[in-house]
Amino acid sequence: MSHPVGALPIPSVPAALRNVTLPDGRRADVALRDGRIAAVTGHRADAARDGAAVDLGGALLLPALVDGHAHLDKTLLGAAWQPHRATATLQEQIANERELRATVGVPVADRATALAERMISLGTGHVRSHVDVDPDVRLDGLHALLGVREAFRDRLTIQLVAFPQSGVVSSPGVADLLDAALAEGADLIGGLDPAGFDGDVDGQLDIVFRLAERHGAGVDIHLHDGGESGTAQLRAVAERTAALGLGGTVTVSHAYALGQVDGPELDRTATALAAAGVSIMTNGPRDTMPPVLRLRAHGVRVFAGSDNIRDSWWPYGTADMLERATVIGLQGGLMTDEELHAAASLVTGEAAAALGLSGYGLAPGDRADLVAVAAGGVPEAVAAHPERLLVLHGGRVVGPAPSTAYPRFTPPSA
Questions:
Q1: Cβ partners under 8 Å of residue 251, min gap 6
Q2: Which residues are CB-contacts of 389 (< 8 A; sequence separation ≥ 6)?
Q3: Nearest-5° angle of CA 144, CA 148, CA 154?
Q4: Backbone phi, psi, residue 409, to 5°
Q5: Is residue 346 within 8 Å of 292, Cβ to Cβ?
Q6: Residue in 37, 20, 127, 11 with CA at minimum distance from that of residue 368
Q7: Coil, strand, or helix at residue 187?
Q8: Which of 150, 155, 255, 381 is deepest in the core (most CB within 10 A)?
Q9: Sorting pLDDT into bands at 50, 70 and 90, what band is 94?
């Protein structure tokens, strides 16, 4: 007979996940084969049982969660607790991080591994991580994360962004380091506040987009600059994206300015971003956040990331992307079931599309990168960020912990 959640053994490669609730509310049985979804059919309680099937008792089944913006090299997980140090400026914060990085005593790879393990246990199957590339650390962090990426290749998909944390134009030698990072395995090139940090919008964007074009890489730029300075930079990014035909491969992360302007300035910026195919990443920041629903109404792809998790930038962070959807929902005033579905899409389909993932979803032929959640539906999963019952990557069980019993889930009455 099939194995109900909560009983051992759980097959390491299930043939099917029976009695699941799909995001649209239907009960279904999902057949798996060769690491992919083979079929999705209506649940039949009287169907013949397969000893390699897992009965999920009506739990919600989602495609694996996607963390669209993390910093695996910065986390302090795996190291002793570090009290947060207050700083007044971005430059001071970077200097503080550099000092802590030299004294923490736990290698980047070990700390990144601790965070990656936690991500997997919570149902994340894909993550985009920025990694510092600057004259101090050079490519050391990248090399560490390339090793982590390889070690986790069967459990977690990791994209790496070469991130110029100390600036591009204002930091001699960084352009060459970014070039080398892309040649050695980074998937994307990053940027940082072209106006506010480098003081040279065209200079930074010239370098970033030239290297992206040379290496056939995507772009993901941190933009904290606010107000109309920020929106002008967003339109500059959109203009270059359109001119080079890079639509769908360019992201601006944070984009606080979109939450600080209104009316015509917001609308014309959103229109430019949508037309160029530039995505916006938000982590639901403590200050101003891009208006998710309004940007979506303009056709802008918005998705979510965890950003910093237990590092020198802030002491918070759990790596739970459903919790991240909760945070964004609270910040953005997303309350109705329809809006909670929108919040969930920020950590599932919209994030997957922004990262260019193929074969992502719950349709036959899609990769069996899946997470079963102790909730009766998507709105509940966002509002309560509940327990993860089963995590699959490429059809194999990778979490929460294949060697131990899974907690039982009592579904709502039909």
A1: 68, 218, 219, 220, 221, 278, 279, 280, 281, 354
A2: 5, 56, 59, 372, 373, 374, 400, 406, 407, 409
A3: 160
A4: -125, 125
A5: yes
A6: 37
A7: coil
A8: 255
A9: confident
What is the C-alpha end-to-end distance of the chain, expressed in Å? 23
Give the helix, strand, coil percentages of the chain, each rounded to 5. Answer: 35, 20, 45
Closest CA to 393 of 29, 36, 68, 8: 36
Q: Are 223 and 234 in contact (CB under 8 A)?
A: yes
Q: What is the pLDDT of residue 410?
A: 54
Hey, which bits of 284-326 come out as E strands?
Answer: 302-304
Rounded to whole angstroms, the Cα distance separating 66 from 127 reads: 6
Quote the tokens at residue 402: 């294949």
CA–CA gap between residue 76 and residue 112 (Å, rounded): 8
Q: CB neighbours (10 Å) of residue 243? A: 10
Categorize the per-residue pLDDT at 414 as very low, low, confident or very high, splitting at 50, 70 and 90. Answer: very low
Phi, psi (rounded to 5 degrees) for 62:
-125, 155
Listed in order, strand segments (DSSP E) in 258-335 are 278-282, 302-304
Integer Cα distance of 205 and 184 in angstroms: 22
Phi, psi of 72 (to 5 degrees): -60, -30
Higher pLDDT, 146 or 104: 146
Helix (H, G, I), strand (E, B) or coil at 55: strand
Q: pLDDT at position 406, please?
A: 39
Q: How many residues can be counted in the chain?
A: 414
Contact between residue 331 and residue 284 where contact means Cβ atoms under 8 Å apart: yes
